Structures are given as C-alpha cells and as structure tokens.
Backbone:
C-alpha cells in the first residue's frame, strides 16, 4: 500500500468515528479529518486504488456542494501537477 493509500485509510477511519458519534461529529472530529486531509497534497496517488479513492472523494465533495473540500482534491487530481 502506498503512503497515499495509508493516509486515505486513516481519513476514512476518522470519518467513521465522527459519523458514529451520538449527536453527530464534534468539532474535534471535524478537525481530525481536516488535519489528515491537509496532508494529501504532499503525496501523490500511486496505485489504481489511490486514484479510485480520490475519484470517490472528489465526487462526494462535488455532490455535497463542499467547495472547500473539492478544490484541493481537483488540484491533487490535476494532470498539470505532474507536468515536467
């Protein structure tokens, strides 16, 4: 598993914990997920699983209207990010 894949698993796990909290996610839950998400731009998707996770995450952000979450994901998936 790539470093990107390991981080994506941590993000998914943090969201599960936040979603299971009675009364909804706490501020700390949200900040834990955001802190992990902030690490994504330093990594590059390496495997098909990485790219599929990124595509699902981006689709969910766009469907939810979460522009603050979608923009960094679009940049991460952008082809010009890898241009020489």
Residues:
């Amino acid at each position: 598993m790539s470093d990107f894949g390991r981080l994506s698993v941590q993000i998914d796990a943090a969201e599960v914990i936040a979603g299971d909290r009675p009364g909804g996610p706490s501020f700390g839950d949200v900040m834990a997920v955001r802190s992990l998400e902030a690490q994504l731009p330093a990594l590059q998707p390496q495997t098909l699983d990485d790219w599929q996770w990124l595509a699902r995450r981006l689709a969910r952000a766009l469907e939810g209207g979460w522009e603050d979450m979608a923009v960094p994901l679009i940049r991460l998936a952008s082809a010009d990010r890898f241009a020489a």
Notes: The chain has a mean pLDDT of 87.
